[in-house]
Amino acid sequence: MKTAVFSARRYDQTLLARANARGAHELMFLQDRLDANTAQLAAGCEAVAAFVNDDLGAPVLERLSALGVRFVTTRSTGFNHIDIQAARRLGLTVARVADYSPYSVAEFAVGLLQAVNRKIARASMRTREGNFELDGLMGFDLHGKTVGVIGTGKIGTLFARIMAGFGCEIVGSDVHRNPDFEAVGGRYVSHAELFAASDVISLHCPLTDDTRYIVNAQTLASAKPGCILVNTSRGGLVDTEAAIAALKSGRLRGLAIDVYEQEASLFFQDLSSTIITDDVIQRLVSFPNVIVTGHQAFFTEEAIGQIMQTTIDNLDDFAAGASLGERLVA
Predict the structure, then answer these.
(1) How far apart are CA 184 and CA 282, in angstroms?
(2) What is the pTM of this model?
(3) To 5 degrees, how large is the angle CA 122–CA 160–CA 111?
């Protein structure tokens, strides 16, 4: 099946080609991000393989449908970048990667937490310049601290398990109770209690209408003074302006994010020789107690290999008329 693979980086091309070793599908790799201007590149294709920052809103889906595209598969578990109602209206089948190594994101979240708490990036930059002074690098022990986990699915529960290993008290908030979370010592509390009690808050929930800006001016005002916020899920969970205000007031001791609400125009590309016009991200990276990474939490050999194999499996199953199971979105 001829498939246009948008936002295709070198690793996408290498690993998708490896997963497609039988040559069952003709993969057309495009570095371009999918949007209303680039959708035309999918002409002649029956399927599109997209990524998290591709635009799959109604206008783009309508254009793809008009070109003869029948199937959309996203190389991600989240699908908030896809207008599902429009896809159904157009008769497009949409699939996702239902699962990949949850350890990749959980472990990275812990790394971000330690990096911002123990000032690891600042210390590294200092020593490169011959400065071995410790002033300004003091953090705190995680042992005995309360860690709040918002979203207690597979990744959130693994993160909780790791933090329990540090000797932390774990509290969680989710619309669904997960017995695995409770089995690692997690205790469910109200949303308000989690913010008030937590020294560290880590976000692991999907982005939905109900969770958009789940971290906002009001929730941050009720947060424990001096807490650290970690977000490896979706940028839209955090009102960035509110987070900046909390950093300025000291309500937030630190912020570590691998996702950003306006990341689509920034992430997964080299902008080091250009002027970045996004003033919000420029303010964020100017804070000494903020770490921003470019949506790399999922980026391990194990996770990427699984994502690419599932993408090919999705194409195989759609072409064969087989059930997509939990991978089916629309």
Answers:
(1) 38
(2) 0.91
(3) 20
Residues of the chain with pLDDT under 50: none
For the segment 14-26, what is each residue's pLDDT rounded down to a tens digit?
999 999 999 999 9
What is the b/e burial string over 198-209, where b = at least 16 CB atoms within 10 angstroms of the residue's CB?
A: bbbbbbbbebee
Structure tokens at 18: 């490896």
Q: Is 234 a catalytic residue?
A: yes
How many CB atoms are located within 10 Å of the residue 182 CB? 16
Count of Cβ atoms closer than 10 Å to residue 177 Cβ: 11
Residue tagged 């969770």 (tokens): 211
C-alpha closest to that of 73 among 258, 315, 319: 315
Task: Give the other-Cβ count within 10 Å of 244's Cβ.
Answer: 17
CB 75 within 8 A of CB 311: yes
Given 81, 96, 234, 327, which residue is catalytic?
A: 234
Q: CA-to-CA distance for 140 and 226, rounded, in angstroms?
A: 11
Residue 238 pLDDT: 98
The pLDDT score that the predictor gives to residue 247 is 98
* Active site (annotated) includes residue 204: no
Vertex 72: Cα angle to 176 and 69 (nearest 5): 155
Per-residue model confidence (pLDDT) at position 17? 95
Q: How far apart are CA 165 and CA 45, in angstroms?
A: 49
> Cα 277 to the chain's mean position, in Å?
23
Q: d(Cα 258, Cα 48) in Å, to the nearest integer?
A: 26
Condensed to tens digits (0 to 9), the pLDDT of residues 180-202 reads 999 999 999 999 999 999 999 99
CB 71 within 8 A of CB 47: yes
Catalytic residue among 81, 253, 295, 327: 295
Sign of the torsion formed by the C-alpha atoms of 269, 271, 277 and 282: positive
User: What distance in Å separates the CA atoms of residue 74 and residue 302, rounded to the nearest whole number?
Assistant: 18
Q: What are phi and psi of 165, to 5 degrees?
A: -65, -25
CA 150 to chain centre: 14
Identify whether the C-beta of residue 137 lies closer than 8 Å to the C-beta of residue 118. yes
Residue 261 annotated to the active site: no
